[in-house]
Design goal:
Layout (H helix, E strand, L loop, with lengths): L3 E13 L2 E12 L5 E6 L7 E6 H7 L4 E3 L2 E8 L2 E10 L2 E8 H14 L5 H5 L1 H9 L3 H5 L18
Antiparallel strand pairs: 1-2, 1-8, 2-3, 3-4, 5-6, 6-7, 7-8
Length: 160
Amino acid sequence: MNTVVERELELKLVLSPDRSVPVPARLSYRVSDPYAIHITFHVGSSCPVHWTFARELLVEGVFRPCGHGDVRVWPTKVNGRSVVLMALSSPEGDALLEAPTAPVSAWLERTLRAVPPGSEAERLGIDDGLAELLTPTTGRAQDGLWLTDPWPSDESTDGE
């Protein structure tokens, strides 16, 4: 099952302390990629801008400042409203985005119900995949290939 949790939302691109512009965005979370969230910004160009970062970063950023480097998230108040600020940096430029806390929190809650924190690795099936890779197949073990050294030693076995 490939569940996707999405939310359309209008963010604000902060240009200065007194000026911002609305930016339509889509928040996406895929159960098949349980550690990541995806944000697509529609900035009026022919190609939308995509960002992917850890769900845990946004969850924590709703409550306290977190992150470093390319993505930093922190809660604050703007004109008495609770918002989450996201500072994004890339080689193409930097952006400060403001999102209303309530809809972001509600969307995050839906993602946490889809995949509870700490259960993400189970969704990836890594343990099952490793077990399958590390389990010898019966055919190879029976024909002796599994136990044969594929690179025989350079040393002679007949005393030469």
